[in-house]
Amino acid sequence: MPKSGFTNLTVREITKKQVEDVFKERGYEKNESFSSWVMNTVNSALQKQIYCDTKYPTLRHVHIDNEEDKEFVVYDKTTNKVAVITTEEGEIECTTCKSESCSHKDFAMLHPKFMNKIILS
Ligand SMILES: [Zn+2]
């Protein structure tokens, strides 16, 4: 039974362990409690999702099962087509638009998978 003003959230044990491992490995435990860090992280992710949904309402990331894939695929509901975002010699390219800037590239750059797998690798 949680204390007054609080509630429990049920998640899979393996999920909790994965999140807790990141919490400990990154040293976040020095600054705040696990539950506080989890809620701050969830709120941050939620704010980013709301921003993306508002700024790019017709774009969605297409999940790719191959974790080694260096391409980031965006589905565009406006055109009913996918845009593939790649990096060539440090330049971010959109195979659909082939222009210097486009919403597909901007959308991709807001996604952590794109940042971790493509930009930082
Ligand atoms: Zn594009």
Task: Describe the protein in words.
By secondary structure, the protein is α+β, with helices and mostly antiparallel strands. The chain folds into two domains: 8-55; 57-121, no CATH class. It has four helices and four strands; from the N terminus they run ααββββαα. The protein has helices at 13-25, 34-55, 103-109, 112-119; strands spanning 59-62, 72-76, 81-88, 91-94. The protein is elongated, with a radius of gyration of 18 Å. The mean pLDDT is 89.
Topology:
Elements: H1 13-25, H2 34-55, E1 59-62, E2 72-76, E3 81-88, E4 91-94, H3 103-109, H4 112-119
Antiparallel strand pairs: 1-2, 2-3, 3-4
Zinc ion binds next to α3.
Portion in helices: 40-55%
Molecular shape: elongated
Total individual domains: 2
Biggest sheet: strands side by side, in what order? 1-2-3-4
Radius of gyration equals: 18 Å
Distance between the termini: 45 Å
Mean pLDDT: 89
Estimated structural class: alpha+beta
Say how many strands there are: 4
Model regions low in confidence, pLDDT < 50 over at least 5 residues:
none
Q: Bound compounds, please?
A: zinc ion
Query: Biggest sheet, open or closed, and with what strands and sense?
Result: 4 strands, antiparallel
